Amino acid sequence: MSLTSKRVRIYRPVRWYYRVRYHSLGSISMTSQPLKNSSNMAADLYQDLARDVSGFLRLAFTLKRMTGINLPQNEKNLSLMASRVIHIMRDHNFAGYDQLLGAIEKDKTGVAVQFVECLTTNTTSFFREEGHFPVLQKVLRERAKIAEQAGRRELRVWCAAASTGQEPYTIAMTAIEALQSYSSIALRILATDIDRVALTKASRGIYTEDEISRIPPQLKSSYFSERSTNSGKRFVAKDHLKSVLTFAPLNLIETPYPFRFEFDVIMCRNVLIYFDQDTVAGIVGRMDKALFKGGYLFLGHAETSARRPSGMTTISHAVFQKS
Questions:
Q1: Is CATH 3.30.70.2860 what the domain over 132-322 is classified as, yes or no?
Q2: Catalytic residue of the set 128, 156, 193, 269
């Protein structure tokens, strides 16, 4: 049986988090390495695009306006832009950046979404920067104890860069293992990203053998089922792992965030490096407001230059607590 033969509901209901139904774009992970040219792409069009500095600057401005991502002008990024948008140009018979820009402005739910998603490369893995997860276990137990004492029945975690799911599933496995002594506390994890294609993969929870290679064997057998397909082995997240996760699109530069509740932990790792400092300050400030007092913010190891809001203290490398 095909693993994708059943209809998949991509986004579970998110009303328990959001004040209103929310359909904006969200956080992205992007690499500076351009994708390889399509063999069907006209070389002369690619060269024209890669030399179009004026068009690049307008597209880069549009990208920043839509997502907050900063893409400075240099030869590598000119090539990146050309190689990423070329399939949109081909699909819509656009002759140059002017036509693409016009379509982005006119079609906010079609070409505009394609534009953002083609500049998204979901570089991620299970247990990435693994030193954070023993710290996460410790703070989750601490927050669960505080929640019990306060009469709260749930622990809330926000994964702000879900990508294709490896990060939120890692958080979920870590949390379930850490909270086995707190059966009265319900675990809820909101996993957001800008890329709806990535969120589709994340919500299905289906991975190759290579993709799950970093998961310890005991956790792999506890949380994933092995299936055989025509394309080789696949590992499917079990229902008790999926049940604690809600996947939804969210734009980190939107203000204010539309949450109904505060979070005990926010994981926002390896995303802020793509924003300028003013945008980072705004995002981190809004995340501070979204945390419970005493809650924790985890950033990526390369993001320690991010300006912390006043009232947060450093707990560990790239881990901060709201005072």
A1: no
A2: 193
Q: Please report, as a single letter, which amino acid is at residue 64.
A: K
CA distance 202 to 225: 16
Among candidate residues 84, 128, 152, 188, the one labeled active-site is 84
The lowest-confidence range among 103-117, 177-191, 234-248 is 103-117
Burial class (CB in 10 A: 0-12, 13-18, 19+), 13: exposed
| Cα–Cα distance for residue pair 207/84, rounded to 1 Å | 25
Encode pLDDT of 182-230 as tens digits.
999 999 999 999 888 889 999 999 999 999 999 999 999 999 999 998 8
Residue 193 annotated among the catalytic residues of the structure:
yes
Residue 160 near residue 271 (C-beta atoms within 8 A): yes
Rounded Cα–Cα distance for residues 238 and 205 (Å): 8
Phi and psi at 70, nearest 5°, equal: -100, 120
Torsion angle of the four alpha carbons 209, 212, 218, 222, in this order, in degrees rounded to the nearest 10: -90
- For the record, the structure tokens of 232 come out as 């080789």
Q: What is the DSSP letter of 259?
A: B
Residue spans of the domains in the chain: they are 43-118, 132-322
DSSP string, 20-71: S-----------SSPPPPPTTS-HHHHHHHHH-HHHHHHHHHHHHHHH-B--
Return all residues near 180 (Cβ < 8 A) that are at least 6 apart: none
pTM above 0.85, yes or no: no
Does residue 84 have an active-site annotation? yes
pLDDT digits (tens, 9 = 90+) for 158-188: 999 899 999 999 999 999 999 999 999 999 9
- Report the b/e string of 96-135 with b at 16+ CB within 10 A: ebeebbebbeeeeeebbbbbbbbbbbbebbbbbbeebbeb
